[in-house]
Predict the 3D structure of the following.
Amino acid sequence: MSQEQDRIFFRNYLIVLGLLALMIVIFLLAARAIGAQRGGLDAQRTAQVSEATKPVGQVRMAGDEEPAMAAAPVAQPEAPAVADASADDAGKRVYSGLCFSCHGTGLPGIPQLGDHAAWEARLADVGIDMMYEHAINGFTGASGIMMPPKGGNPALSDDEVKAAVDYMVAADK
Ligand code: HEC
């Protein structure tokens, strides 16, 4: 072979080698890209499956943190003294959350918040203790409409209901 032929052969040889190296790099990159995509899919699947099969409830062990979603209005022990500020707050809270639907909407036959005459009449009639009792255990009087026990929410404590009664009897509109 002449020197010229050698040179051409060597050049082509290098070009082929270079192309091969380039292909290796391209394949590596492609493989990584596909792998990454798949990984994402798998993670998505796993998340979907664990979401679909997550337990309905979980046992909370003593010392575990309070789960954030346990926001149900659980009856909390309120301060027993009806006159203090926190009881006032409880009364207002219970009234606004429940009693309002009948005692704040102007329904006829139902003593309304701020209607001092109506509340005074009942106070004079049966007295506060009996009114507590009626609010806690339910009552149907002259109106013929039922006052449901605890306004219909058995989760309320007696003290909360009493606080709501106090609030309604005393409050101005
Ligand atoms: C579904 C409607 C309704 C809801 C809710 C409701 N009440 Fe009543 N309530 C009544 C009716 C009706 C009466 C009047 C009954 C009558 O005199 O015939 C009444 C009367 C009362 C009385 C007067 C009882 C008496 O002896 O004269 C009190 C006190 C009272 N409610 C407290 C509450 C409290 C506290 C709540 C909230 C925890 C509440 N109510 C929620 C309907 C409701």
Summary: The pocket of heme C is lined by residues 94, 98-99, 101-103, 109-111, 122, 126, 130-131, 134-135, 139-143, 145, 147-148, 150-152, 161, 164-165 (CB under 6 Å). The mean pLDDT is 85.
